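FORM 12-B: Structure-to-Sequence Request
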């Protein structure tokens, strides 16, 4: 039986290679645009309650906390939580955070309130039962609240292997290559995730492709561009097809309707 991935063994490597990379910068730049739109929709006249489920280093929720909001950060990895707490303390945001050492699927056992905004980013692809976890965290969103969900896109994984010429690997069903420890074992089909969100009673507000072309660039040492141009172009193209569906990740956000 497949188990949920715990990053205790490679937490420092994960932070350096994922959060501290150009790929991480693009991811933050694209998703932050969506989060600003969400915060505007929710209104910020008073502090919002935020759940960062499986939040790792909490980089995006820290940006939200800087705007005066309260965050509950939950993660399965004690090492990731320690790194996050140190980073949050250095940012002067510790009073606005509550830390919960638990898997996202158990968050309901540790909180006694619902949330205005729930972040669930790059977690499902590491889980044995992604839908179960998604249902749990969606249930923590209050009526009128918004869920922000990002997942590893199976279509993007397929396309990457195709253009790299890994056709035998594709024909074999793209089994996980153990040497790629920071790459999820499998992606999720976008249509499945959208359906799960809607079946939970949410209305999808928007979708964005995350890294819609950067990872497919043949050689980033050639061509006429700067990294700033890459980020700006990713932000420009990410909310239109076919680029949404080509993203290595997809960010989808949805609102729970107000109760009658």
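FORM 12-B RESPONSE
SEQUENCE OUT:
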């Amino acid at each position: 039986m497949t188990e949920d991935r715990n990053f205790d063994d490679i937490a420092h490597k994960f932070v350096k290679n994922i959060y501290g990379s150009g790929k991480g910068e693009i991811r933050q730049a694209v998703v932050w645009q969506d989060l600003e739109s969400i915060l505007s929709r929710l209104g910020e006249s008073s502090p919002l309650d935020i759940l960062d489920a499986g939040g790792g280093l909490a980089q995006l929720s820290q940006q939200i906390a800087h705007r005066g909001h309260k965050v509950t950060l939950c993660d399965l990895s004690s090492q990731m939580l320690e790194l996050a707490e140190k980073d949050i303390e250095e940012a002067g945001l510790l009073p606005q955070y509550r830390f919960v050492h638990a898997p996202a699927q158990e968050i309901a056992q540790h909180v006694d309130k619902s949330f205005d905004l729930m972040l669930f980013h790059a977690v499902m692809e590491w889980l044995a039962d992604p839908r179960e976890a998604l249902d749990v965290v969606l249930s923590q969103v209050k009526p009128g609240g918004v869920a922000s969900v990002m997942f590893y896109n199976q279509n993007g994984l397929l396309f990457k292997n195709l253009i790299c010429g890994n056709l035998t690997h594709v024909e074999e069903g793209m089994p996980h290559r153990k040497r790629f420890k920071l790459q999820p074992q499998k992606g999720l089909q976008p249509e499945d995730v959208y359906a799960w969100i809607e079946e939970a009673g949410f209305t999808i507000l928007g979708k964005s492709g995350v890294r819609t072309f950067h990872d497919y660039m043949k050689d980033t040492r050639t061509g006429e561009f700067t990294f700033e141009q890459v980020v700006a172009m990713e932000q420009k193209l990410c909310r239109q097809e076919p680029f949404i569906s080509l993203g290595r990740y997809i960010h989808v956000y949805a609102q729970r309707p107000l109760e009658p």
